[in-house]
Amino acid sequence: MTSTIRSGAGACGGACEPPNGAATAAPRGSLRRPAELTRNVDVSGLVDSEGGLLDRAIFTDEDLYKQELRRVFAPSWLFLAHTDQFRRPGDFFTTYMGEDPIIVTMDKSRRIRAYLNSCRHRGARVCRADFGATRNFTCTYHGWAYDLEGALVSVPNKDGYPESFDAKDWGLVEVPHVETYHGLIFGTWNPAPLSLRESLGDMAWYMDAMLDHDDEGTVVVGGVHKWVLEGNWKLSAEQFATDWYHVNMSHASALTVLSPSGKAPRDEIVHRTGRQYVDPRGHGAGFPVHPKNRFDARTVHEWMDYDALRERLGDARVEGPLTTGHATVFPNFSYLPVNGSIRIWHPKGPDAMEVWAWTIVDKSMPDEVREAQRLYNLRTFGPSGIFEQDDGENWSEVQAISRGFITNGVALNYQMGMGSEREDGRHPGTTSELYSDAAGRAFYGHWRDLMNTPAWHEEKR
Question: What pTM was computed for the model?
């Protein structure tokens, strides 16, 4: 299910007339930024997705990181929040699109809208809370205030401005397109994007295995957990798209903890078979396939009606991506179906990221089942979860040594599963083996293509 919550003025770019006092990607007026400030690098030689090789400079170079913000994040659909976080007008949640601070809110007409969290006067944030409810967003620097529709509604000492000053010209900069898919809210700065559903393509089939269990949809439990890691954001996004290979080594101790006391994990757990979805737009999902796939939390497993899920979703989804697996929606939204974890990898420079994670559950779940899923997620993939700690250590280790002169010049190998990509007749789109780098190669191939393609804001006006 896709719905458009708020649309901007289409292909008119930064010169659009602002709706209801808000401004779309703001025109620079008579200001002209010199080209030297936005030089772009041809990255063709850094990603060999066909040969399965990667140059580590894509994780460490500051200029490439700035180019990512311009050409990867600015044009892409980026995850913002869950619809359950907005129940009445004035509810808001603050987040980021790339490194741009964003307010997501419900306006008086109950539409979800998103604005750049920056005052048009001197640029301070107009909302410093993580979430809450309000009638207006007021800058604490000089007092400029904006309503829920983004319009500038209060200017202290307004008489001191020239007659040419018109408050209608100085509303909050609005994200021109905001759409939802099964409760997940995404936004893009692109004034004329593909629709969210079209951008997801076949990935939507795999997402539905987590999001579309019944007509009631999903809700958030337990708030949003946030933590900071050393490591480039692509390391985590890539792993969730493509990497089951690390599980048996990196998570050996966690698997032992979850096994019967004093016993190693069963062989059928260690040596799983499954598939990996490979998307040309950089999305990816991996999942074991077994007719008895189940949810790990016992209370959740016992509550689930697997027959009803088979009727709604089909055998292929129930036996595959419904439960244990991993996935990334390009560029930086990932999820884990078995424990209801959704997360965003916010970039904070080439060497750091902030992880923001939610637990979502079926709205039809009774309270005790919701709590069981929340606790299971917290214990496994929360900030101190037994799996999450392993992953963070790996990403930080990779980043810690990648700036060495010799180290940075040694290519990385992404060749597992080369040639195994095919249409398997059971799962939509192209799939590879469970143990494969295929989705990783596609992820970096799409990243390379975006990095080498002028974005909407680079068009001559």
Answer: 0.92
Which residue ranges form the domains of the chain, and what is each CATH number?
77-189 (2.102.10.10), 216-457 (3.90.380.10)
- DSSP code, position 33: -
Helices 388-401 & 233-242 angle (0-180, nearest 10)? 130
Residue 459 near residue 75, CB atoms below 8 Å? no
Q: 458, 67 in Cβ contact below 8 A?
A: no
The alpha carbon torsion through 181, 184, 190, 194 (nearest 10 deg) reads -20
How far apart are the C-alpha atoms of 307 and 408, rounded to whole Å?
51
Other CB atoms within 10 Å distance of the CB of residue 386: 17
pLDDT digits (tens, 9 = 90+) for 251-293: 677 677 766 665 665 665 556 789 999 999 999 999 999 999 9
* DSSP secondary structure, 262-283, as one string: T-PPPHHHHS--EEEEE-TTS-
Spatial contact of 158 and 168, defined as CB atoms under 8 Å apart: no
Residue of 400, 451, 406, 441 lying closest to 420 (CA atoms): 441
Q: What totals of helices (H) and strands (E) does the chain contain, helices first? A: 15, 22
Q: At residue 445, does pLDDT exceed 90? A: yes
> Are 414 and 53 spatial neighbours (Cβ–Cβ below 8 Å)?
yes
Angstrom distance (rounded) from CA 262 to CA 131? 44
Q: Is residue 213 exposed (0-12), middle (13-18) or buried (19+ Cβ within 10 Å)?
A: buried
Question: Which parts of 46-94 fold into alpha helices (H)?
Answer: 57-60, 62-68
**DSSP codes joined into one string, 174-225:** BPSEEEEETTEEEEE--SSPPPHHHHHTTHHHHHHHHH-SSTT-EEEEEEEE
In angstroms, the CA 99 to CA 95 distance is: 9
User: Half-sphere exposure (CA, 13 Å, Cβ side) for 227?
Assistant: 14
The sign of the torsion formed by the CA atoms of 336, 257, 297, 426 equals positive
